[in-house]
Recover the amino acids of this structure.
């Protein structure tokens, strides 16, 4: 078997692996679409209903036709349309506003330790980070096209960040810290400490407005967890699989694709390191969320 045939076999095997998860991904997609449609406030416009119905139909088609002949020929196009449709859906955006429509609870008491994980989950769902991560992990396409599609999804989603930061939940989470009692006490202590400690980061936090904190926080979550993590994950998985396949098929080491995948493997972390990277991103999000809840900013 020559190199082009060997690589063609690898690409077919890669698509087969992707397709093996499509039924579960499609089922989760349908559930997310139905829940979003049921929880939005107000009546739906006709075009919103038609677009949402088309997304549900596309997800069902991916789930039903997965085992049929010729599925892989149109699967990637359908997945791109589904991901972009999720990212541009007004019903998904209205549902996000509904999720963040109430005030956060008091975060100064011991009960905040129990409330914080639920608040973090609500923020990740409300600012589309969870949805972006799901689309990136569950619906992969080609390596380069996957990065481009995910970048387009992030760009479409982040257009709503201003509206999200105006919701009661995020405005309350990044509330002004002037009240020495109640929720803002810890944040007030932090601001007093930075006045004497001279820590640049704390000085920056003191000068930053609530809206700036919120925008930076949401965008960082969307980029770190919604773009970088799934894109790097699939690049590394594909590079490792390609190198293993090339070694098995005894492809010439001077082959350009083989050299490219070996180069990517050198820069990709191992499986344990990938898991640590995901866990680190989660920890960063958790710390950022806690900072958003207690540091606040100026009006």
């Amino acid at each position: 078997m020559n190199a082009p045939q060997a690589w063609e076999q690898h690409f077919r095997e890669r698509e087969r692996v992707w397709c093996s998860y499509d039924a579960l991904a499609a089922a989760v997609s349908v559930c997310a679409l139905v829940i979003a449609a049921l929880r939005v406030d107000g009546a739906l416009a006709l075009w919103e209903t038609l677009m949402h119905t088309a997304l549900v139909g596309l997800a069902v088609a991916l789930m039903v036709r997965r085992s049929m002949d010729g599925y892989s020929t149109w699967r990637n196009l359908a997945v791109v349309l589904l991901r972009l449709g999720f990212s541009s859906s007004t019903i998904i955006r209205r549902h996000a506003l509904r999720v963040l429509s109430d005030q956060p609870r008091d975060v100064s008491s011991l009960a905040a330790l129990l409330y914080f994980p639920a608040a973090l989950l609500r923020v990740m769902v409300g600012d589309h980070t969870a949805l972006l991560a799901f689309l990136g992990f569950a619906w992969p396409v080609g390596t380069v096209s996957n990065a481009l599609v995910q970048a387009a999804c992030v760009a479409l989603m982040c257009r709503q960040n201003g509206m999200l930061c105006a919701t009661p939940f995020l405005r309350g989470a990044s509330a002004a810290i002037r009240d020495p009692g109640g929720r803002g006490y810890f944040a007030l202590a932090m601001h007093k400490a930075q006045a004497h400690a001279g820590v640049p980061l704390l000085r920056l936090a003191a000068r930053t407005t609530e809206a700036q904190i919120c925008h930076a926080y949401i965008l960082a979550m969307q980029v770190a967890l919604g773009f970088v993590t799934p894109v790097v994950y699939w690049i590394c998985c594909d590079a490792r699989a390609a190198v293993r396949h090339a070694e098995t098929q005894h492809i010439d080491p001077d082959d350009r694709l083989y050299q490219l995948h070996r180069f990517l493997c050198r820069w990709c972390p191992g499986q344990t390191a990938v898991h640590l990277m995901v866990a680190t991103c989660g920890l960063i999000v958790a710390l950022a969320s806690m900072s958003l809840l207690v540091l606040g900013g100026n009006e």
About this structure: The mean pLDDT is 78. Residues 3-294 form one domain.
